[in-house]
Amino acid sequence: MTTLSDQIASAIAELEDEKVIELVETRLKDGVLPLDIVAKLQEGMSEVGLRFESGEYFLSELILCGEVMKEAMELLEPHLAGANQEYRGNIVVGTVSGDVHDLGKNIVVMLLKGSGYNVIDLGVDVPVEKFVEAIKEHDAPLVGMSVLLTGCQDSMKDSIAAIRAAGLNAAVLIGGNYVDEMVKDNVGADFFGKSASDAVNVAKKVFEDIGGRS
């Protein structure tokens, strides 16, 4: 178990939902930067992920953590919009066709929003053409695809192939419980992530690369 240095991180790691919300509200009133609060929430969520992987926490705890994070982000989002007068850019996110799981995707969406990105969330069971249309409409340089079911890997592969066939230069990030380097190479993605924080790191890299080329 990791020793957490912040009260918010500890509270979310211990699944103390009321305490998390109380601390978020207090820090907002005290003028703490919203993104700094998100960072502490993220630290706590990472600890929950580690406890889940070690078998200390189970799926029910993971779901509860997601709910606590969602409630906290609902408090923070209006302040984040004000703190980020310029959004860093558009990112399209969705769970691939045939898969209706959204817990991981929703956490990624919240963290990306909290980091200043404008996220176009397409939901679950997203058809190939919907990914292509959304990337075109929003001129998004990054698309995130979530998958939980191994049987939906072909859907992910087809979606990425359609994006390439349409001549779009969007980088593709995939995520899911079984996703790894081999899956990434098989479906033709550019990046893979094992955690929500990985998505934030990839987004930072993609948008920094764009800035460096402009």
Short structural description:
The protein is α/β, with parallel strands linked by helices. The chain is 59% helix and 11% strand. The protein has helices spanning 7-13, 17-29, 34-54, 59-83, 103-114, 128-138, 153-165, 181-187, 196-213; strands spanning 90-95, 118-121, 142-146, 171-175, 191-193.
Oligomer: single chain
CATH topology of the largest domain, anyone? Rossmann fold
The best one-word shape is: globular
Q: Characterize the main sheet.
A: 5 strands, parallel
Structural class: alpha/beta
Beta fraction of the residues? 5-15%
The strand line-up of the biggest sheet is 2-1-3-4-5
List the helices and strands and how they pair.
Blueprint: H1 7-13, H2 17-29, H3 34-54, H4 59-83, E1 90-95, H5 103-114, E2 118-121, H6 128-138, E3 142-146, H7 153-165, E4 171-175, H8 181-187, E5 191-193, H9 196-213
Parallel strand pairs: 1-2, 1-3, 3-4, 4-5
Report on the architecture of this protein.
With 214 residues, the protein is of the alpha/beta class. The protein folds into 2 domains: 7-83, Methionine synthase domain (Methyltransferase, Methionine Synthase (B12-binding Domains), Chain A, domain 1), CATH 1.10.1240; 90-213, Cobalamin-binding domain (Rossmann fold), CATH 3.40.50. It contains 9 helices and 5 strands; from the N terminus they run ααααβαβαβαβαβα. The chain has helices spanning 7-13, 17-29, 34-54, 59-83, 103-114, 128-138, 153-165, 181-187, 196-213; strands at residues 90-95, 118-121, 142-146, 171-175, 191-193. It has a 5-stranded parallel sheet, sandwiched between helices. Helix 4 (59-83) packs parallel to helix 5 (103-114). The longest helix is centred in the N-terminal third of the chain and has 25 residues, at 59-83.
